[in-house]
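A common beginner's mistake is to predict each chain separately and then try to dock the pieces by hand. The better habit, illustrated here, is to supply every component at once so that their relative placement is modeled jointly.
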Amino acid sequence: MDTDPRFDMLKAACPTRQVIDRIADKWTLLAVVALEASGTLRFSELKRSIEGISQKMLTQTLRTLERDGMVRREVEATVPVTVRYSLTPLGLSLAHAVGALREWSYANMDAIEAARDDYVPPTGPPTPTAVPAA
Amino acid sequence: MDTDPRFDMLKAACPTRQVIDRIADKWTLLAVVALEASGTLRFSELKRSIEGISQKMLTQTLRTLERDGMVRREVEATVPVTVRYSLTPLGLSLAHAVGALREWSYANMDAIEAARDDYVPPTGPPTPTAVPAA
DNA sequence: CAGGATCCCATATGATACTG
DNA sequence: CAGTATCATATGGGATCCTG
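With all components supplied together, the output reads:
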């Protein structure tokens, strides 16, 4: 059998795995980072902060984060309604964990770039510009 | 302008953001975790380790990780060829960063579950089973 | 301003078959 | 075993229009 307990954490049924499945997505992580950086942001501010995100994905991402207790949503009944988003303590703790990833990214982006340059794909078909032709 | 320097890290052009865009994906994180847990694994072992991953995605994920210098791929010319994958130092350091996320997931999965139960979506349309009808 | 509802498409990913 | 190639499909995600 392949019941190696070391991999239980990777079983789709494992709760930890489920959590990973949920938060390991670009927009979620970026939203959390944005909120961590400024504490509180309105919908449109948040949208401007996260370059490339669409209104749809932002709404969707925020709803999920709110549902899972990471984000607090406060509606203020002003004339054009004002909605402010901020991290809950739970969300803040997630932000810290994500911080490790960001730091790593920052510290190692050069190494990645370098590796990428050196890389030669395994058994690639002849490069079009290099084939001597038959 | 919205040139708040606090959000530079979220600009799509920012190198850190680019790295995040790349590694913040489920299969990549899971592959790294799997390799960290056992040091070295063959293709098929890796596939069995990561529940739910398809052969295609595993190949693709490993290629990318290899290209970016996180994974080392060693081919042994045995009869049915043997390929072993392991983390490079760079990959290992990433694994550590990801570890923070895993620990967070493990520590807070209950809180998430709880929040999810309490959650009531904002201004939802009347629940079918609750509408008094006109 | 915030966000719900739609339409629609690119592509991410799975399933299958084939090979060195 | 460790892939590559192909086909089929789900769905992630953008563009638009609309409303309180």
